[in-house]
Design a protein that fits this description.
Radius of gyration: 27 Å
Largest sheet: 2 strands, antiparallel
Order of helices and strands: HHHEEHHHHHHHHH
Shape: extended
Number of strands: 2
Structural class: mainly alpha
Strand content: under 5%
């Protein structure tokens, strides 16, 4: 109301050109005020724990193209991978292992299942001779999976990391130079002990508690990472306490 009184007072005091200019400015101010009110002012900042959208992975592309020697099978425990080769340890790990790690970001079936189970199968039989030279190629896929901040993807990746460092001698030590790329996300979620799914018992049985998995992963890093592991973990995650020195 006061704005209109001010406007008409200006109409009487100044000439028509200035009045038109003031009138347009007045309309602009009113428009901006209404727009800000409707949009709620400043945009809300996203949560550090909010899941991020991930782009379609190269794993999905290669799977749909039929590049992987795998097929979906089942047994008494559920779905399994049927490998089309007799000895998967003879596969080219430089080619296949990074691609399977790339699929850890997937959340749709069957891509998520094939990626996770494929990584587990390859790590189980590869040994240090096959896995150790490929470590540098695995860091970007691991970081991408953790950066999705999707609880299911993060939990899956943490379990894979634990299996990775225990897959053979020197693998844990080879991971130490890459802590600065992997551990920042773990530092964010370290105290995030909220459970997934319907019940606490279900999550504990299936090891889906992010906080617990991070603690297990850090301890696995320290145990297998050699003498420099703890100081590097402590640098990135100051709240971590040694499981070896205590």
């Amino acid at each position: 109301m006061h704005g209109f009184v001010w406007f008409f007072a200006c109409l009487r005091k100044y000439n028509s050109f200035i009045s038109l200019f003031l009138f347009l400015c007045f309309l602009l101010v009113c428009f901006l005020f209404c727009f800000q009110k409707q949009t709620g002012g400043r945009k809300k900042k996203g949560s550090a724990f909010a899941p991020r959208k991930s782009k379609p992975t190269q794993f999905r592309f290669f799977y749909e193209r039929g590049d992987f020697p795998i097929a979906l099978g089942c047994d008494t425990k559920g779905n399994i991978i049927k490998w089309k080769v007799k000895d998967i340890s003879k596969l080219d790990y430089h080619h296949y292992l990074p691609m399977f790690f790339d699929g850890l970001c997937e959340t749709q079936h069957p891509y998520d299942f094939f990626a996770e189970q494929g990584v587990k199968d390859l790590l189980a039989v590869g040994g240090a001779q096959k896995i150790l030279p490929v470590i540098p190629q695995l860091i970007i896929p691991i970081k991408s999976a953790l950066n999705t901040r999707n609880p299911v993807v993060v939990a899956r990746t943490l379990k894979i990391l634990q299996q990775l460092v225990h897959s053979g001698p020197m693998i844990g030590e080879a991971m130490v130079p890459y802590y600065r790329q992997i551990l920042p996300i773990l530092n964010i979620f370290k105290n995030r002990n909220s459970n997934l799914g319907d019940t606490i018992a279900y999550n504990q049985k299936n090891r889906m508690n992010i906080g617990d998995l991070i603690q297990e992963t850090l301890e696995a890093f320290e145990v297998t990472g050699g003498p420099d592991a703890f100081i590097n973990i402590k640098y990135m995650i100051p709240t971590y306490e040694s499981c070896v020195l205590s």
